[in-house]
TrEMBL record:
It holds the Pfam family Phage_Mu_Gp36. This is Mu-like prophage protein gp36. InterPro entries: Phage_Mu_GpJ.
């Protein structure tokens, strides 16, 4: 996974994770629910970045960690999604689309690319088969 429960807590606070996951009313955040959301978010990130980078990403770029947290936070909202959470999710998806298109590059030392190019088509052809001289008399 590209983010941890500690990353989620640092970004969004223990109270928010508690409110989103403590359906059993135990007074503790449901770590399994957070890990499931992070796993799902990681798979989504992989789906986009695999067009340009070898997955799983290692080391994990900060940008990918942030996107993973924002997407997982969105997934944890089961009923109503606040505008700020939806905006974070949408921003993450837009960033992932830009990585897949090659507009944005992930920054992390040692990150392996797949060698994908900007979608250019290269065509190499030999000389002409039929010329005016070769077609004389037809």
């Amino acid at each position: 996974m590209y983010a941890t429960v500690d990353d989620m807590t640092a970004r969004f606070g223990h109270q928010e994770l508690l409110e989103l996951t403590d359906t059993a009313m135990t007074g503790s955040a449901d770590v399994t629910a957070v890990l499931t959301a992070l796993g799902d978010a990681t798979e989504l990130v992989n789906g986009y970045v695999a067009a340009r980078y070898r997955v799983p990403l290692h080391p994990v770029p900060d940008m990918a960690r942030r996107w993973c947290c924002d997407i997982a936070r969105f997934y944890l909202h089961k009923v109503a999604v606040p505008d700020a959470v939806k905006a974070g999710h949408d921003t993450a998806l837009q960033g992932l689309r830009e990585v897949a298109r090659g507009v944005v590059q992930l920054q992390s030392a040692g990150l392996e690319t797949t060698g994908a190019t900007g979608g250019e088509t290269v065509l190499s052809v030999g000389g002409r088969t039929f010329t005016n001289d070769s077609m004389k008399g037809f």
